[in-house]
Amino acid sequence: MRFEELPTPCYVVDEALLERNLEILGGIMERTGAKIILAQKAFSMYSTYPLIGRYLSGTASSGLYEARLGHEEMGKENHCFAPAYREDQIDEIIELCDHIIFNSFSQVEKFGHKVLATGKKYGLRINPECSTQVGHDIYNPCAVGSRFGVTREHFRPDLLEGISGLHFHTLCQQNSDDLATTLDAVEEKFGPWLSQMEWINFGGGHHITREDYDIPLLEQCIRRMQDKYGLEVYLEPGEAVALNAGFLVTTVLDTMKNGMDIAILDTSASCHMPDVLEMPYRPPLLGSGEPGEKPYTYRLGGPTCLSGDNIGDYSFDQPLKNGDRLVFGDMAIYSMVKNTTFNGMPLPALVLCDKNGDYQVVHEFGYEDFRMRLA
User: Fold this and answer.
1) Short-list 101, 91, 89, 109, CA closest to 127
2) Shortest CA distance to 67 belongs to which of 55, 54, 77?
3) What does the CA dihedral 361, 367, 370, 371 come to, rounded to 10 degrees?
4) Which long-range contacts (CB under 8 A, 24 or more apart) does 147-153 make?
5) Pairwise CA distance, residues 346 & 323, whole Å
6) How far is 102 from 116, CA to CA, in rounded Å?
7) Which GO biological process categories is it annotated with (predicted)?
8) Are the C-beta atoms of 268 and 301 separated by less than 8 Å?
9) Whether the Cβ atoms of residue 65 and residue 92 lie closer than 8 Å to each other
């Protein structure tokens, strides 16, 4: 299929770009012996799991359904963390997963014996109370009042039997200098017990495949835990796996004026790129410029009834017209995993672009996908 034949809106994942990211991650694994697993919360297009599984050690999940997906579609190491587990799901999660990570000692006391009865061990999430982010507290696991992980004040050394490793996750789209700072806090607060562990998980939020990412410093951080404490090191990036490897293709439905030029697209910020409103985030748009940079500036909006369903203001070399196709970049991550059918909006089709530049529609969605969620 050619690009101009694709249905819109659609998410397009470029296998060549995805594999470029995987090669970077695979190189880190080869040089350090660390294990890197895919955080499915950021990217779960399982038709790409055979490719991802050639490079990475497995998957990380946030609950039963992701655990099943990782087990069924990749079939390698399978890790699960949840702030609290349901009693009617924990047995299946234990069956599916290699690492079950608890968020509190009360969860350890409630479910730990079930894990040990299967011959497996479990991990504990810790909170080093080290915030390296500026703003965006919604994505800050170390914010005051965070529900994630055990702080030093509430750490229970008397309950460490059966706990094989410690997990922390403090980063969001950050470089390895912030990881190094976090490791200082981890050692300061939990250092006396690190040598008792078999592994440590650095969590996600590492923007490893970004151009300016300091990979040598990351590898120093990995070796620091390996050499000093004899720990096996895990990382579970999500964004870094599919960073800049996906696109959202959309069509201009109409143009209008109201104090400025406006273009209505067949895609929605609210439904199809929610981080635009939640983060907030301005996605890159191929061939466009900042407002006023090029001769024609438009506010790009979706077709829903939400007044704030605006993607942003962009400028173009030529006026937009009905039927024009626009291509937003970096649309593989946190897009298809978070999209909705609000207002009865159709979900974008899922498309793979292979290394020869050929496009294949992997899945299209219709009315039944909207209807099945309601009753």
Assistant:
1) 101
2) 77
3) -140
4) 147/83, 147/103, 148/83, 148/103, 149/103, 149/125, 150/103, 150/104, 150/105, 150/124, 150/125, 150/126, 151/126, 151/127, 151/189, 152/189, 152/190
5) 18
6) 13
7) lysine biosynthetic process via diaminopimelate; nor-spermidine biosynthetic process; spermidine biosynthetic process
8) no
9) no
Supply φ then ψ for residue 345, to 5 degrees: -65, 130
Pairing of strands 232-235, 58-61: unpaired
**Separation of alpha carbons 346 and 334, rounded Å:** 17
pTM: 0.96
Binding site residue list: 239, 275
CA–CA dist 334, 238 (Å, integer):
9
Q: How confident is the model over 225-278, as pLDDT tens digits?
A: 999 999 999 999 999 999 999 999 999 999 999 999 999 999 999 999 999 998
pLDDT given for residue 165 in this prediction: 98
SS3 category, 79: strand
Distance CA 139, CA 210 (A): 19
> Tokens 């562990």, residue?
197
176-194 helix and 215-229 helix, angle to the nearest 10 degrees: 10
CATH 3.40.30.10 fits 3-11+246-331+339-371, yes or no: no
The residue whose two tokens read 């999660």 is 93
| CA pair distance 26, 29, nearest whole angstrom | 5
Single-letter residue type at 52: I
Cα separation, 273 vs 330, whole angstroms:
10
Hey, what are 181's tokens? 């700072």
Percent of the chain with pLDDT over 70: 100
Vertex 239: Cα angle to 67 and 142 (nearest 5)? 80
- Amino acid of residue 232: E
CATH number of 33-242: 3.20.20.10
Query: Can you name the residues that pair with 174 across neighbouring β-strands?
Result: 206
Domain layout of the chain by residue ranges: 3-11+246-331+339-371, 33-242
DSSP letter at 345 equals P
Q: How far apart are CA 259 and CA 127, in angstroms?
A: 49
Q: Which amino acid is at 265?
A: L
> Span 347-352, mean pLDDT?
98
Task: Report the SS3 class of residue 365.
Answer: coil
> Binding site for substrate: which residues?
239, 275
Contact predicate 233/203, CB 8 Å: no
- Count of CB atoms within 10 A of residue 204's CB? 25
d(CA 141, CA 189): 17
Q: 137: which 2 tokens?
A: 């507290």
